[in-house]
Specification:
heterodimer, A: alpha+beta, Butyryl-Coa Dehydrogenase, subunit A, domain 1, Butyryl-CoA Dehydrogenase, subunit A, domain 3, 3 domains, 11 helices, 15% strand, B: alpha+beta, 4-stranded antiparallel beta sheet, 12 helices, 11 strands, globular
Chain lengths: 367, 393
């Protein structure tokens, strides 16, 4: 079992790390965030220049065909510097949903790779995480329904929308995927900012024209495979973030004096940092195993669900501890540890919460 | 939790229940349940209503305008308030400086300040923490130098909650440089409109403005603003920190409010096969926190029984603070979980954004709750206190 990155993968990680340091460094972070979507667009263009946006896209669609491990190397850098650009949603998840989905899909995939178009997946309904919880109906190619959350969807030009072409809410079959333009008639886009500065949206579709992606009625397997690919990318992001939060905390407890000594000399503080570093180690190992499994082409889906549950637990715990050990300043906007906590809390919810993935683990490992 | 009540207490409970019935507007409830404070003007109006009823200072002796209630009555009052989704009273004046003034203050200070605290006329903030002096309060550096009939204060305070709305601040400052770090610290009352005092907001991860830095540059206050004796402020500060842990005891009684909010969010959330609340896994997680909250309430009652018997409760206040802060973190975390994908919708970017009724307060509450294991003596410090005082380690 290979855990180390290859030279090329290591270069990707280092380049993402350098980019993050230059563009989203802790010191300039608040100023960067205050620039809003404008700054994000600038960074997105720079990422396109570097070839990152086409990395995960299949070669057949004009991309570089990067695999899960290459994506993980890049995402570690995203996580270390909490870059807020919609990389996983737009360059990993949506392309995986769209791959082999027809001419329009191919055309859009090439444009994603060039940084010309942004696409977000809009699959979740009501308040369920289940991909079967679909009520949105397709009459021919016209869609009506509500999507409660599209990750990073606020600035998307297109959406990949799941809709029922057969069966009823909760049925595993009869679900299809459609491409919907953000400016399509009948579509209402409600945009939200989350506490980690990502920009999301919900959708209301009222007889909106869509373009069918791939085969009708058979989208569930495609969604599950794409979600696993996105999940593993986010796991790498979580590992990058928790390692950075731990490193910042280690620096802090070595310098912060209380009762006349550095607080890092207190055993209780040492033990907490030990727990944090064990959690980092555990998460890194699990992430690597999950990424390699996905890369093998015959992914162990129960393993990926397990990795998602455990790494989310570790990530939130580490970020909470980082805030705790910084004391009051850890809760301030000024310090990057509070940003790591907010990101970890949101990563814990993307594409399903821990309960959802634990249930998925049970179903997959009992199957 | 309903302990068996004496007939007098039953009558009292009915009286309190009647007072709170229908008196809490719906738009207060989500804020209260998330552990966040209502806007200061709202809390002040609430305080005034309690004062008009004679209940402005539930924990104070009658001679200073308090209720003189027994611990059982206090516990009933807090339980009923919690059940009605009433907010906890703002504690800085009532629980922190008020008792110090009536214990150590001079007569003129008692006559002037105490009634104003009870009616909500004065909003107090606490000038204790400093950069470098948080849990290690003896490291504070703010100076108060005598000059004629005045003290001249110079220094910087941190984490001064609600300094931006406060009328007055109670400050710990050095009045002499003694060899021992705890000596030479005095407790001084400062009006917030005194020249030389400057407030700068601290932006926190929950994006709700509640805390500040306060800069004191040649702030002159009369010598008569000293509380008790010069140089003895450390001792009063310790009394106050003990009281702060009692505040946690009162706050702990309000935990069921948050758990009710979690229930409601889970009942609202549709998932395949029913609502989230119907799922045994979720119910089991909620039940676990509810069970621990019941245990906490039992601890609070024991603490109150100690008080009734005049017994030293030892470090039980620290234990309550420790457990309450852990539980409010878990409860608000579960609330965010119950909200589902929409929990990521912190703020609408367009005019037409529609969020669940408890957003963003639930998430703000979950983020804000991280500070409960830091403020008022961090959990690490509380454990040190318990190790020392209960275990003799």
């Amino acid at each position: 079992m290979e855990f180390a990155y290859s030279d090329e993968q290591q270069i990707l990680l280092e380049s993402a790390d350098r980019f993050g340091e230059e563009n989203m460094g802790a010191a300039a972070r608040l100023a960067r965030l205050a620039e809003g979507p404008e700054g994000s667009r600038r960074r997105w263009a720079a990422m396109a220049e570097l070839g990152w946006l086409m990395l995960p896209i299949a070669e057949a669609d004009g991309g570089l065909g990067g695999g899960p491990v290459e994506i993980a190397a890049l995402m570690e850098g995203f996580g270390r510097h909490l870059m807020i650009e919609p990389y996983v949603s737009c360059c990993v998840f949506a392309p995986a949903l769209m791959q082999g989905g027809g001419d329009k899909a191919s055309e859009l995939l090439a444009q994603i790779g060039m940084g010309e178009v942004r696409i977000a997946a809009a699959l979740l309904e009501d308040d369920g995480y289940s991909v079967f919880g679909v009520d949105t109906r397709a009459e021919g190619d016209r869609l009506t329904g509500t999507k409660v959350h599209a990750e990073d969807g606020a600035d998307a030009d297109w959406f990949v929308v799941s809709a029922r072409t057969g069966g009823v809410y909760g049925d595993k079959s009869g679900i299809s995927l459609f491409l919907v333009a953000a400016d399509a008639p009948g579509l209402t886009v409600r945009r939200f900012r989350s506490s980690d500065s990502h920009r999301h949206c919900s959708l209301e579709l009222n007889d909106v024209p869509g373009i069918l992606l791939g085969e009708r009625d058979t989208a569930v397997a495609r969604i599950a495979a794409a979600a696993d690919r996105a999940l593993v990318a986010h796991l790498a992001e979580a590992v990058g973030s928790m390692e950075a939060a731990t490193a910042a905390t280690l620096d802090y407890v070595r310098t912060r004096q209380q009762f006349g000594v550095a607080i890092g000399t207190f055993q209780v503080i040492q033990h907490k940092l030990v727990d944090m570093s064990v959690a980092c180690e555990e998460s890194r190992a699990l992430m690597s195993v999950a990424a390699r499994s996905l890369e093998s082409g015959t992914p162990d889906r129960a393993l990926i669900a397990a990795a998602r549950v455990r790494i989310s637990q570790c990530g939130v715990m580490v970020a909470q501890m980082a805030v705790q050990l910084h004391g009051g300043v850890g809760t301030s906007e000024e310090l990057v540890v509070s940003h790591h906590l907010r990101r970890q809390m949101m990563l814990d919810l993307i594409l399903g919460d821990r309960d959802y993935h634990r249930a998925r683990f049970v179903a997959l490992s009992d199957a | 939790m309903t302990p068996s009540l004496a007939p007098d207490d039953l009558a009292f409970r009915d009286e309190v229940r009647a007072f709170f019935a229908d008196s809490i507007p719906d738009d207060w409830k989500t804020t209260v349940r998330s552990g966040l404070r209502l806007p200061p003007e709202t809390l002040t109006a609430y305080q005034k209503r309690l004062a008009d009823r004679g209940w402005g200072a539930p924990t104070w002796p009658v001679e200073y305008g308090g209720t003189g209630w027994t611990p059982a009555q206090l516990s009933i009052f807090w339980s009923e308030a919690a059940a009605a989704d009433a907010p906890p009273q703002f504690h800085q004046g009532l629980e922190l400086i008020g008792p110090i003034i009536f214990t150590y203050g001079r007569q003129a200070q008692k006559d002037f300040y105490l009634p104003r605290i009870i009616t909500g006329e004065d909003w107090w903030c606490q000038g204790y923490s400093e950069p470098g002096a948080g849990s290690d309060l003896a490291a504070l550096r703010t100076r108060a130098d005598r000059d004629g009939d005045d003290y001249v204060l110079n220094g910087q305070k941190m984490w001064t909650s609600y300094a931006h709305v406060a009328d007055r601040m109670f400050v710990l400052a050095r009045t002499s440089t003694e060899a021992k770090r705890q000596q030479g610290i005095s407790l001084i009352l400062v009006d917030m409109d005194t020249p030389g005092l400057r407030i700068q907001p601290i932006h926190t991860l929950d994006e709700k403005h509640h805390t500040n830095e306060v800069f004191l540059d040649d702030v002159r206050v009369p010598l008569s603003n000293l509380v008790g004796e010069e140089g003895m402020g450390w001792g009063y500060g310790k009394v106050l920190l003990d009281r702060e842990r009692m505040v946690a005891a009162a706050t702990a009684m309000f935990l069921p409010q948050t758990l009710r909010a979690v229930r409601e969010a889970a009942k609202r959330r549709r998932v395949p096969g029913g609502t989230l609340f119907d799922r045994p896994g979720f119910r089991s997680k909620l039940a676990q926190i509810e069970i621990e909250a019941l245990a906490l309430q039992a601890m609070v009652m024991r603490l109150m029984a100690d008080a009734a018997a005049g017994a030293d409760s030892g470090p039980r206040g620290s234990m309550v603070k420790l457990r309450w802060s852990e539980l409010i973190q878990q409860a608000t975390g579960l609330w965010v979980e119950a909200l589902g994908p929409a929990a990521q919708h912190f703020e609408a970017l367009d005019g037409n954004g529609k969020t669940p009724p408890d957003m963003p307060l639930a998430l703000q509450g979950a983020l804000y709750s991280r500070v409960t294991t830091i403020y008022g003596g961090s959990s690490e410090i509380q454990r040190n206190i318990i190790a020392r005082r209960a275990l003799g380690l």
